[in-house]
Amino acid sequence: PCVSTLLGRGVLTAKDCLYAGVFTGAKGDPLAEFLLQSDLLLVCGAIHSDSNFAGYPQLLTERPVIWWDEQ
What we know:
Distance between the termini: 25 Å
Order of helices and strands: EEHEHHE
Low-confidence stretches: none
Largest sheet: 2 strands, parallel
Strand order of the largest sheet: 1-2
Radius of gyration: 11 Å
Helix content: 10-25%
């Protein structure tokens, strides 16, 4: 399944297969529990910043994370 960040929300649509929605990173985000149950995060193009993950820092520390970007 795939989720997007607020800045990447135009990359996927609800019509895309396995699209779960937009993760805001804020406390209480409805997708947080879904992501917290993952075995691996593949993060494509998302900015590694507090604005994306501040509410759930354990997303980046309690499972493998693969960062993919152009920089």
